[in-house]
Design brief:
Layout (H helix, E strand, L loop, with lengths): L10 E6 L1 H18 L6 E7 L3 H10 L5 E8 L14 E4 L9 E9 L3 H11 L5 E9 L12 E5 L5 E2 L15 E4 L12
Parallel strand pairs: 2-3, 2-5, 5-6, 6-7
Antiparallel strand pairs: 1-9, 3-4, 8-9
Helix pairs in contact: 1-2
Bound molecules: inosinic acid and magnesium ion (MG).
């Protein structure tokens, strides 16, 4: 089903409010800043496109020096699927080197863990000093690969969510909250595409 004129109409319920996200991102920024105190080698590697909103807020919540680089990976077959395909492709690689750097991967959500498992191994192969992970959301019920996550914003139930960067069919990234998408948006009805 196509997105409504008003994207809020396609949301079943607000799971995490704008205020709750804001407060949690500030906490994470402070904790991460403290963990890397006095360290000028921190580089946030953010994963396009879903994590752009989170990384923009998070980097400004970190008090110390911080740089960013951006990668884009795809773990979906494309189109409007709500299930990972299980294969990860790099669509955009790092712009610079991470050798000797403290890398913090910034993700929007860990679902099966396949994407982050792949990324962690890929980045670890480039001789960084350390590789850690911060994710805004985690769906523990769906985990297939168990990977250590150092910082997490919120644990959420096994529902497909959008907003604050997360999309369905490239829509809804601009919502300021995280909401549960109405299942009617992705369960096809007879006679409809
Ligand atoms: P994983 O490889 O299964 O952990 O999938 C991670 C990626 O799947 C995330 O970076 C998102 O792009 C996407 N994803 C997983 N769950 C959701 C969701 O509920 N809403 C939107 N995107 C999701
Ligand atoms: Mg993503």
């Amino acid at each position: 089903m196509a997105a409504s004129q008003n994207p809020h109409d396609d949301i079943e319920s607000v799971l995490i409010t704008e205020a709750a996200i804001d407060a949690r991102v500030r906490e994470l920024g402070a904790e991460i800043g403290a963990a890397y105190t006095g360290n000028d080698s921190l580089i946030l590697v953010s994963v396009l496109k879903g994590a752009i909103v989170f990384v923009a807020d998070l980097m400004r919540a970190i008090p110390g020096n911080v740089q960013i680089d951006l990668m884009e990976v795809s773990s979906y077959d494309g189109g409007k699927s709500t299930e990972s395909s299980g294969t990860v492709r790099i669509l955009k690689d790092l712009s610079g080197t991470i050798e000797g750097r403290d890398v913090l991967i910034v993700e929007d959500i860990i679902d099966t863990g396949i994407t982050l498992n792949y990324l962690t191994n890929y980045l670890a192969g480039k001789n960084p000093r350390s590789v850690k992970i911060v994710t805004l959301l985690s769906k523990p019920a769906r985990r297939v690969v168990d990977i250590p996550v150092q910082w997490m914003g919120f644990e959420i139930p096994d529902k497909f969510v959008v907003g604050y960067g997360l999309d369905f069919g490239e829509q809804y990234r601009n919502l300021r909250y995280v909401g549960v998408l109405k299942p009617s948006m992705y369960t096809s009805t007879p006679g409809e595409e």
